[in-house]
Every structure is written in structure tokens, then in C-alpha cells.
Design a protein that fits this description.
Distance between the termini: 49 Å
CATH superfamily of the largest domain: N-terminal domain of the delta subunit of the F1F0-ATP synthase
Number of domains: 2
Radius of gyration: 21 Å
Number of helices: 8
Oligomer: single chain
Structural class: alpha+beta
CATH class of the largest domain: Mainly Alpha
């Protein structure tokens, strides 16, 4: 089964539960900290993924490691993921949860591809201009793509803004071939 099919309902369910308790941001921070623990401790993550380890053992370790560190809501959510053998999907579930938070706050995330790193005020300027074009607040992450030759390419909110030299050259080539 495609992980997106799993990520969305679990992420939505956790988001709804956190909203009902009024702790959406706190729950998000706790979920991110759980993901960080798994990332920092690959053996622990592997333990939860092993089919040879009983669900009861996994539940006990989960309570031991995370009980008292995160809210009861997050512990219970982890236990559900263990019971349903979905703990390996936690990263995707947390990404979906974050997307729901951003959507609710009116934010769109995007990627700004460029040949050289873009940061600071220049990145903020791209975020503002992209936000004006999309009529949303936009958060951009910069990724390097040497194939662009120059200029930028922005993917945000399912849309592409392409101001790269590569695309301009390709368009010129097509125009010249069409003549």
C-alpha cells in the first residue's frame, strides 16, 4: 500500500485529536522530537520495525522510552501505530500533520532551486514575491540545481514558477525550430 494512503488518515486523525485538546503546536513539537529520537537511535527504530519482536514488547519499550517525555496523547498514538504495524510510517505522518498545520495557518511550502545558495534577505524577498503570486504566505527551502545555468525555479503550492536560464534557452530553441 502506498505510504501516502497511510500517512494522510493517521496524520489527520492525530491533528484532529490535538485540535480537540487545543495542543496542535505542542503535539507537533512532540512528534518531531519522537522522530528525532528514532533518527538519532537507528537501533531503536529497527527494534520497532522487527516483526520478530512482539507487539507487547514494543509497547512496553515505547512506554519506557517516551512515557513522561511526551504527552499521553502522543504515547497513545505511538501505541496505535505499533498495534497497527505502522510505526515505520511516522515520518510521513508527521510531515502530513505539519502540512495540515501550515494549511490552517495559510502557509504554503515550496522549494527554490538555484545555481548558488540563496539565504537571508534574498530568500525572504523570494518568499514575499512568491506569496504575492499565490496569495498565501510562503516558506521556501533553497536547493542547488547546477543544471539551471542561472535564474531560479520555484515549486510552491503545487505550482511552478520557472525563471531559469535553462528554460529560457529551451524556449528560444523551440521558437527558432518552429520558424
Amino acid at each position: 500500500m502506498d505510504s501516502l494512503t497511510i500517512d494522510n488518515p493517521y496524520g489527520q486523525g492525530m491533528f484532529d485529536a490535538a485540535r480537540d485538546l487545543g495542543d496542535r503546536d505542542e503535539v507537533f513539537a512532540e512528534l518531531k522530537s519522537v522522530c528525532a529520537v528514532f533518527k538519532e537511535n537507528p537501533k531503536l527504530r529497527k527494534f520497532f520495525m522487527l516483526p520478530t519482536v512482539s507487539v507487547a514488547n514494543k509497547r512496553a519499550v515505547c512506554r519506557s522510552v517516551f512515557g513522561g517525555q511526551v504527552s499521553q496523547l502522543v504515547v497513545h498514538f505511538l501505541l496505535v501505530l505499533i498495534d497497527k504495524r505502522r510505526i515505520g510510517m511516522l515520518d510521513g505522518i508527521v510531515r502530513h500533520y505539519e502540512k495540515l498545520l501550515d494549511d490552517q495557518a495559510g502557509f504554503a511550502k515550496g522549494i527554490l532551486y538555484s545555481v548558488v545558495p540563496i539565504e537571508g534577505d534574498t530568500l525572504k524577498e523570494f518568499e514575499e514575491k512568491t506569496g504575492q503570486a499565490l496569495d498565501k504566505k510562503v516558506r521556501l527551502k533553497n536547493r542547488i540545481d547546477k543544471a539551471l545555468i542561472g535564474g531560479v525555479r520555484i515549486y510552491a503550492d503545487g505550482k511552478l514558477i520557472d525563471a531559469s536560464v535553462k528554460t529560457r534557452l529551451e524556449n528560444m530553441k523551440q521558437a527558432m525550430l518552429g520558424l
